[in-house]
Amino acid sequence: MATKRNEPDVQSSADDKNSLADHDSKDSTVKEAPSSESLTFTLSLPTPVRETPAHEAAVAIDDVAVNAHHVDPASMATTSISFVPASVVTMPPEVAPEAAVIPELPPVDHPTTRRGRQRAEVRPAPETATMLTAERLINQSKKSRRPAPEGFVQQLVYAVTFHLVNMGDSYRVRERKALEARITKMFTGGTRFVPVLTRKGGVGKTTITALLGMALADTREDRIIAIDANPDRGTLAERIDKQTRATVRDVVMRSDSLHTFSEFQTVVSRDETRLDVLASDTDPHVSEAFDEDDYNVVADMAERFYSVAITDCGTGIVHSVMRATLQRADSIVIVSGGSVDEARLASETLTWLELNGHADLVKNAVVALNTATQGTNLVKLEEIEAHFKSRVREIVRVPYDPSLATGSVVHYRDLNKLTKNAALELAAVVMDGLPEVRTD
């Protein structure tokens, strides 16, 4: 370390010593004024140099000196340059880029939105309430389990396994459901008319009409009507519990005032299966007055409110009512008994129809073989069936039933199981022959 000091003379040093010696003795009494001379020490230390660490140098920004100065625009000279292009280049017109084609995504089986719904297609025309069907609204994929099976063994296994094993319906249940599916066949294009006829009385024509109508009404969900069009006094209304005294004559007289179904219900009787029955004239003096025109009025009225109309025809087939009935018929049911003469008369009925321009109805006809008549046990029913199979579309055998043999009110729930199955089979066969769509 270098020390720079002043060199006092010898006299000054002696005086200083004397002054220091007297300072202690005179300090308590008189304080002398400080000397005008002073001693100054000056130290020259090296300037510390700080070295920048490597981690700071890596992120440091170099200092660049900026010389900011003011530029006077007036002192600047302006130079203009003009040039003439040697040639003009014509650019081609811009072509709009082609829109990118985005392929459509494949259909999604499950909803993709947050609430599990997809955007449905909106039809241009307003929809009716009948278009809100269960098949359209219910999500079939969310049905976790099949319906419970029917059948003793199937239901037992289903219950014991706590609904884990579902064997499905039994064979008989599957047959019954298939039969019901045939009966509930849907139609478009107007009412379907099915006459029940024969040339001989006493073979159970009215009973077959009641059984057919009850089976249809009990299985189907639409409206079924049975019309007693017998020019003589018919007994169809006596097969159910009558609720009104009105007949076909009242419908003809009040046709202009029966505008709604509620008003039409006042002239018909309804049984436990929801079958509506329109009775024939009960007065023998005016029964012959029911003719072709009257039947057309009744049929037009039934066509406004019902899906299927079954007509119980009279024993004769040459009267005018039969002509109007056959003109509206979509299919026919021929009733035959189990005796020789009854079967022969039923076959002659088919022949008469073929000769009078109704061959198509004969090919599509159904023969109901009533085995409750006398002499059935002595006749080969198989031979009768073989005969009719060569002429008509189908044959259904109706067994004997005590509830039908009395000729009184028929309670569909009280019929034997075989009789009820025969009625369902007859209804299914008749429905098979009716056209689903009719344009005329």
UniProtKB/TrEMBL annotation:
<dbReference type="InterPro" id="IPR027417">
    <property type="entry name" value="P-loop_NTPase"/>
</dbReference>
<feature type="domain" description="CobQ/CobB/MinD/ParA nucleotide binding">
    <location>
        <begin position="198"/>
        <end position="339"/>
    </location>
</feature>
<feature type="region of interest" description="Disordered">
    <location>
        <begin position="104"/>
        <end position="124"/>
    </location>
</feature>
<feature type="region of interest" description="Disordered">
    <location>
        <begin position="1"/>
        <end position="47"/>
    </location>
</feature>
<feature type="compositionally biased region" description="Basic and acidic residues">
    <location>
        <begin position="1"/>
        <end position="30"/>
    </location>
</feature>
<protein>
    <submittedName>
        <fullName>MinD/ParA family protein</fullName>
    </submittedName>
</protein>
<dbReference type="Pfam" id="PF01656">
    <property type="entry name" value="CbiA"/>
</dbReference>
<dbReference type="InterPro" id="IPR050625">
    <property type="entry name" value="ParA/MinD_ATPase"/>
</dbReference>
<dbReference type="InterPro" id="IPR002586">
    <property type="entry name" value="CobQ/CobB/MinD/ParA_Nub-bd_dom"/>
</dbReference>
<feature type="compositionally biased region" description="Polar residues">
    <location>
        <begin position="35"/>
        <end position="45"/>
    </location>
</feature>
